[in-house]
Amino acid sequence: MNHQPFHHLHHVCIVVHDLDKAVAYYQSLGMGPWFDYPKGQPYVAFEVPNQAASDSMRYKCLDLANFQLQLCQPSLLDSPQRRFLDTHGEGVYHLGFEVADCDEAEAHARQAGVLPTARGRRADRSGFTYFDTRAGAGVVLEVRRTA
């Protein structure tokens, strides 16, 4: 796998007001099957702006031929996703990139001047880091390592 953190697209995440309505629309276009976001093992490190908001977000995922599509319905609690939805409406919130090593990818991004906004790591070092890239990239960028 390439050592550049933003090289291998894993998923595109779209925030929506009504998850069930959005899934039904995509299904009407022949896109499916949808599944709940697999939570995996618990995080040993979990740094997010609002844990209650993070815990209450609903996700549905669809594996396509070349990437995964994720739909996210944030709760009414304050979160970056909720603020995005309230300010910009439904749309692409982040691009998720698969990496071999989350810590290495995070360090590489930090060296480029990009700061994390949220991160989580499991005991096996799988997990995620979101970066503050909206001003420069127009979208949030995330690195993740699947367990």
TrEMBL record:
Gene3D superfamilies: 2,3-Dihydroxybiphenyl 1,2-Dioxygenase, domain 1. PANTHER family: METHYLMALONYL-COA EPIMERASE, METHYLMALONYL-COA EPIMERASE, MITOCHONDRIAL. This is Catechol 2,3-dioxygenase-like lactoylglutathione lyase family enzyme. It comes from Acidovorax soli. Residues 8-146 form the VOC domain. InterPro entries: Glyas_Bleomycin-R_OHBP_Dase, MMCE/EMCE_epimerase, VOC_core. The keyword NADP does not apply. GO terms for molecular function: dioxygenase activity; lyase activity; metal ion binding; methylmalonyl-CoA epimerase activity. PROSITE patterns: VOC (PS51819). It comes from the Bacteria. GO terms for biological process: L-methylmalonyl-CoA metabolic process. Keywords: Dioxygenase, Lyase, Metal-binding, Oxidoreductase.
